[in-house]
Amino acid sequence: MTHIPEAHFSLLTVLPEDVAGQREKLEKQLISLGLLPMEAWLMSLRQLSAVVLWQRHQDQAYQGQATALNALNHPEKAGLADLLQFACRLGLSVIRVNEGPSAGTVQVGGSLLSWMALLARRKGAIPASVAAVLAGRLGLKHSVSAPSSTAPQADADDADIEEPPWSRRTAVMGILNVTPDSFSDGGHFFSLPQAVQRGVEMVEEGADIIDVGGESSRPGAEPVSEVEELRRVIPVIKALAGKIGKTLISVDTYKPAVAKAAVDAGAHIINDITGLRDERMVEVAAETGAYVVVMHMQGIPRTMQHQPKYHCVTAEVYDWLAAACARAKAAGVKPHRLIIDPGIGFGKATEHNLTLLQRLRDLQTLGYPVLVGTSRKSVIGNVLNVPVTERWEGNAATVALAVGEGVDIVRVHDVKSMRKVVQMSEAIIHGRVVAGG
Question: Residue 436: inside a domain, yes or no?
């Protein structure tokens, strides 16, 4: 991120001034109506908004007479421009006033949910003292105010890591199934030459990540042996590692031995559909230092779509992901290596999937990057009443919505077309072409 050494901002005010009291009152009302505490908290954040006014100035000695904050100085790797761009990704509106008596003022407004997500996701970009005062003004505990003991905390190593592709824009993860029975492309890339060729093609089409999987996770799928999965994926990962440069490689597996071998072969990400339920997988993630996708799934692939039930799907998925990430951190996985995935289509009926897609920004308040995979899935087929081969328009709609909700990674089959959907969506959100998009 670009450092802007001479740009300093002082907080002028937060409107409305009583937003913290309003949120607490609304939360209590929602609980009295029967909502779960977590759901009431999330809904209160969604339904209330606040506008923060910052005054820009160039004099480094200036402290401001009517300010609640000291000058807002950002660390070297976290310029204000990057912070405001990320605010737009999370649904906040940014208005810069360049003329008249209010020249130099930046007005940032939006739902408390978006403010909460910004505080949770940009710990390294916002000095702790500044974030604490801002969170206090908004009625949000720093860094996360969920009524849960599993809220993520800032980590000293976060500022030292190399920026992944999703730090500035929504990254595209291309799906490479090295299987004979995946639900939409099983057998297409089963041989090593076919798989490697397709991986290289996806990079040329704009993929930031190639996700290699050797076992189908479609509903009703039967598991494959560890030996067979290793035989399928490791040669592909080794070959791709030498051909696709800095593009990241992910391994789609829930088997610890496969994950470890894949990282040794050149993979950077472990994509675990079981959400690190296996303690050995947590150990592998901690030992290797790989990024790890923690996905929510109710049940197992063979039975997960047999009448899945939730009292409140958003709150339950939120709590489950928070607890899973807390366990991972307790076992030594660094917070900045965790990515969360609500698991669209995994143990969820159509209405559950639609609700989660509608509420993707809620997950941002957990403080981790969010991955979403809807590509060609049954939720699209059920809504549009079309087979797998006719779900392109539905894919595009869900990807555009995910970008609008601030999602960090979209997992897709059709990389070339979905990369364009991401680019167009980002240009609308920011009002300009996003660099690197």
Answer: no
The question of whether 411 is a catalytic residue gets the answer yes
How far apart CA 148 and CA 160 sit, in angstroms, is 28
pLDDT (tens digit, 9 = 90+) per residue, 136-181? 888 887 444 444 433 344 344 444 346 899 988 999 999 999 987 5
The per-residue pLDDT for range 98-138, each reduced to its tens digit, is 787 777 788 899 999 999 999 888 776 666 667 777 888 88
Pair 22, 164 in one domain: no
Q: Are residues 122 and 176 in the same domain?
A: no
Domain boundary among 138, 167, 194: 138
Give mean pLDDT, residues 20-28. 93
Same domain, 170 and 131: no
Annotated catalytic residue within 334, 376, 411, 419: 411
Per-residue exposure over 166-190, b if at least 16 CB sit within 10 Å of its own CB, e if not:
bebbbbbbbbbbbbeebbbbbebbb
Contact, 66 vs 131, CB < 8 A? no
Please check whether residue 285 lies inside any domain of the structure.
Answer: yes
Q: Which of 122, 377, 391, 419 is catalytic?
A: 377
238 is catalytic: no
Write down which residue in 87, 105, 138 finishes a domain.
138
Q: Per the domain annotation, does 437 fall within a domain?
A: no
Alpha carbon distance 248, 210 (integer Å): 6
The string of pLDDT tens digits covering residues 56-88 is 654 433 333 223 333 344 333 345 677 788 899
Range name among 113-117, 190-194, 352-356, 427-431 with the lowest pLDDT average: 190-194
**Residues of the domain holding 83:** 8-138
DSSP state letters, 356-425: HHHTHHHHHTTSS-BEEE-TT-HHHHHHHT--GGG-HHHHHHHHHHHHHTT-SEEEES-HHHHHHHHHHH
What's the CA dihedral at 235, 239, 242, 244 to 10 degrees? Answer: -120
Q: Say if strands 209-213 and 409-412 run parallel, antiparallel, or are unpaired.
A: unpaired
Query: Does one domain contain both 268 and 391?
Result: yes
Close Cβ partners of 395 (under 8 Å, ≥ 6 residues apart)? 374, 375, 376, 380, 412, 413, 414, 418
Same domain for 224 and 96: no
The answer as to whether 283 is a domain residue is: yes
The CATH number linked to 329 is: 3.20.20.20
**Average pLDDT over all residues of the chain:** 84
- Residue 337's nearest CA partner among 389, 294, 307, 380 is 294
Query: Per the structure, how many domains does the chain have?
Result: 2
